[in-house]
UniProtKB/TrEMBL annotation, chain A:
One of its GO terms (biological process) is transmembrane transport. Its main location: membrane. It comes from Collimonas arenae. The chain crosses the membrane at residues 43-62, 88-117, 129-149, 178-203, 224-249, 284-308. The keyword Transmembrane helix applies. It is found in: Cell membrane. PANTHER family: ABC TRANSPORTER PERMEASE PROTEIN (PTHR30193). The keyword Iron does not apply. InterPro entries: ABC_transporter_permease, MetI-like, MetI-like_sf. This is ABC-type sugar transport system.
UniProtKB/TrEMBL annotation, chain B:
The lineage of its organism: Bacteria, Pseudomonadati, Pseudomonadota, Betaproteobacteria, Burkholderiales. InterPro entries: Bact_solute-bd_prot1 (IPR050490), SBP (IPR006059). It is found in: Periplasm. Part of a binding-protein-dependent transport system for a sugar. It comes from Collimonas arenae. PANTHER family: ARABINOSE-BINDING PROTEIN-RELATED, BINDING PROTEIN COMPONENT OF ABC SUGAR TRANSPORTER-RELATED. Residues 1-25 form the signal peptide. Keywords: Signal, Sugar transport, Transport. This is Probable sugar-binding periplasmic protein. One of its GO terms (cellular component) is periplasmic space. Belongs to the bacterial solute-binding protein 1 family. It holds the Pfam family SBP_bac_1.
Length: 317, 417
């Protein structure tokens, strides 16, 4: 808020009998308090409903809460029990597989699509809409649609058999060893268009004259992209990683719709683990412990990234 | 409107609402998850009976499968200190809620109503917390059924099996004739339904009770349990590979339209058959699963009563409990839902042959001491242990786990706190 406009507005609201000196004082008070007043509801809301609840969850994870919360601290036994559970490790390993591949493929496909679209082609607007459109669907819809497409008895495999390719074989969805990869497929299908849009915006923000200068210097197009364009996209990479990482860690609806964590518990993810143990199995303490582990994962990934990024910005890189 | 006016009017409305609640004191608020077709119709009957007795029915239906959403809503209400008058809770969860000290004693309805003599002892025990009735049973589902399409049976030259060798013989013949022998949905609770039925069929009621109700470690790792898993592993071979994640009613549909021959499922499957216009005994057969004709695994729905302060509401609660146990309600509710009444003195005239067989078998297995709670449907063990067992069984069904590894994992799961 600028200092020039505020006294004027304050004076307009206040009665005209005030002397200019009084007006100045009111303006100064308003200047000091108005921003705090305006921001305080949102700050309080996030303090209570985000950080407050994180604190409650941390507390619950140290108790023996069963069906209902019980606030008597009993130490770290929920964590001990959590780490002894095979199912937790399946979920954690799946998060590693899903998160890693999801981010990698989204980045790669998004970047390639953005670069291809950036070649001043015809009907770019239409193509962009086609690529971006999957993002308009909810993960539940994506999950349900891919569930039918990938089901060997209904979708792709049956279609190929009907077309005469009797040896075609694709049953990842119902195979416990591969089910987690079907989640990657559906997730990448949904999110890579969005990554493309971010990269495209980044590409459009690069100064044309640098590229032209490089061309004058005789650099080939691949070299220009490798040495100039992609390094210039660094901040976009950071934002995309941030968004994709948290989509991966909180991922719940996609898996629920696609495989429901199955076959068996083979495509289980920590979010599903947390939900089931807290709410349907009456092991609230254990569920809270798993939620804290998810938070720890987010922090372990994001804190170094944000640190690197802010350090980089400060050094002017 | 100024802010202060808005605040004032909000307070006024709240006060009005709460006083309105106080005026209509003879009211029951019932939390339940009977939201599908036949179920909703059944609940409407209860509402009618209650309103005929001058009690207002406030419906608190929370949709969602096995009632997970309803349980979450219930927990929120109880923690907030305003529980509904009554809620659909079953099995050991009644004891868990009892331990929280929130359930109301309804002996005043149960003792004059002679519930003790009307209900099988295993059932009445579930409805009691520390010797006092806290819940009213609504219906009995039998879980250990095998549903068969007689057309498929005839075409493959097999006969309805009564033992495991006969079962596998029939399954082989069906497979040879080009049918899917066993329709199944690969969801954890369905896997567990087949598992417990096989355990009952292979080991008998005593074994079942020791293993899946009392969780005796020696029985869980013993040779009979290994044999149970061996049999389950063999059954796995007759299920089509697309079963993963399939809903139970889709599996039932495969039996209905003759794609598959048999299905292990509780008697809610009958609803699917009758809804498709099929007649029991003619278009479909209901037989006890192999080796389980002398025993009976039950899944009983019940309405538990919560502590309320208002004496008018307490009275309404007793009216509700009495209404639930009344023969009229038991008949109409169970005709709609496909289950059978909890009391044996209800007229059988309108029930079909599957239901009357279920009634006979329940009575005889109660006498023989082979009436057992269903583990897969949350009647035998608490939800934490049940979940851990389900994890083991569904892992066994969906991987190359050996029976030996499975029994060890099962024994570990049974120790879940």
């Amino acid at each position: 808020m600028s200092d020039h406009t505020l006294p004027y507005t304050a004076a307009a609201v206040g009665s005209p009998s005030h002397t200019p000196k009084q007006q100045g004082r009111i303006a100064a008070i308003a200047d000091a308090w108005l921003p705090r007043l305006v921001l305080s509801p949102t700050i309080i809301l996030s303090l209570v409903f985000v950080y407050g609840f994180i604190a409650v969850t941390a507390w619950l994870s140290l108790t023996n809460s069963r069906m209902l919360p019980n606030y008597e601290i009993s130490g770290f036994n929920q964590y001990v029990e959590l780490f002894a559970l095979d199912r937790w490790w399946v979920a954690a390993a799946n998060l590693g597989i899903f998160g890693g591949l999801f981010i990698l493929f989204c980045l790669a496909i998004g970047l390639v699509m953005a670069i291809l679209l950036d070649q001043k082609i015809r009907a770019e607007g239409a193509l962009r809409a086609i690529y971006l459109y999957p993002m308009a669907l909810s993960f539940i819809v994506t999950g349900a649609a891919w569930k039918w497409i990938l089901n060997p008895g209904l979708g792709l495999e049956k279609m190929m058999h009907d077309w005469g390719f009797a040896n075609f074989h694709f049953d990842w969805l119902v195979n416990s060893d591969f089910s987690i990869y079907t989640v990657v497929i559906a997730g990448v299908w949904q999110s890579s268009g969005f990554v493309m849009a971010l990269f495209l915006a980044g590409l459009r923000g690069i100064d044309d004259s640098i590229i032209k200068a490089a061309m004058v210097d005789g650099a080939s197009l691949p070299t220009i992209y490798r040495r100039i364009v992609i390094p210039a996209l660094r901040p976009v990479f950071f934002s995309v990683l941030l968004v994709l990482a948290h989509i991966a860690i909180k991922s719940f609806d996609l898996v629920m719709a696609l495989t429901a964590g199955g076959p068996g518990t083979s495509s289980d993810l920590p979010a599903i683990f947390m939900y089931q143990f807290s709410f349907s199995r009456g092991q609230l303490g254990l569920g809270a412990a798993s939620a804290m582990m998810m938070l720890a994962t987010v922090l372990a990934v994001l804190v170094p990234m944000m640190y690197l990024e802010t350090k980089g910005a400060r050094n002017g890189r | 409107m100024k802010l202060s006016q808005i605040i004032k009017s909000v307070f006024a409305t709240t006060a009005l609402l709460s006083s309105a609640a106080a005026v209509h004191a003879a009211e029951v608020e019932v939390l339940h998850y009977w939201t599908s077709g036949g179920e909703a119709k059944s609940v409407a009957e209860l509402k009618k009976i209650m309103e005929a007795k001058g009690v207002t029915w406030k419906d608190f239906a929370v949709a969602g499968g096995a009632g997970e959403n309803a349980t979450t809503a219930l927990k929120a209400r109880v923690i907030a200190g305003s529980p509904p008058t009554a809620a659909q809770i079953k099995g050991p969860s009644i004891q868990e809620w009892g331990q929280e000290g929130v359930l109301a004693n309804i002996d005043a309805a149960a003792i004059p109503g002679k519930w003790d003599s009307l209900l099988p002892k295993v059932v009445s025990n579930t409805m009691k917390y520390q010797g006092h009735y806290v819940a009213a049973p609504v219906n009995v589902h039998r879980v250990n059924w095998l549903w068969i399409n007689p057309e498929v049976l005839k075409k493959s030259g097999a006969k309805a099996p009564t033992s495991w060798p006969e079962f596998f013989d029939a399954a082989d013949k069906m497979q040879k004739a080009g049918f899917i022998a066993i329709a199944h949905g690969g969801q954890p609770w369905q896997d567990a339904t087949v598992f417990e039925t096989v355990a009952l069929g292979v080991g008998g009621a005593d074994f079942y009770n020791k293993a899946l109700v009392k969780l005796d470690p020696a029985t869980l790792t013993g040779p009979t349990m290994i044999k149970t898993f061996d049999t389950l592993g063999k059954i796995k071979g007759y299920i089509d590979k697309n079963a993963a994640g399939r809903d139970w009613n889709l599996a039932t549909a495969m039996v209905i339209n003759g794609k598959a021959g048999m299905q292990f499922m509780g008697d809610w499957a009958k609803g699917e058959f009758t809804a498709a216009g099929k007649l029991p005994g003619k278009d479909f057969l209901c037989v006890p699963a192999p080796g389980t004709d002398k025993s009976y695994t039950y899944n009983i729905d019940s309405i538990a009563m919560f502590k309320v302060k208002d004496p008018e509401q307490q009275k309404a609660q007793l009216t509700l409990a009495t209404a639930i146990m009344s023969p009229e309600f038991q008949e109409i509710f169970n005709l709609n839902k496909g289950s059978i009444p909890v009391r044996s003195d209800v007229s059988r005239a309108k029930f079909d042959s599957c239901a009357t067989k279920s009634m006979d078998d329940m009575a005889s297995s109660n006498k023989a001491g082979t009436l057992e709670p269903s583990m897969a449907h949350g009647m035998a063990v608490n939800s934490a242990v049940q979940g851990a067992i389900l994890d083991v069984v569904s892992k066994f069904m969906n991987s190359n786990m050996t029976s030996q590894a499975a029994v060890q994992a099962l024994a570990k799961a049974a120790k879940t706190q």
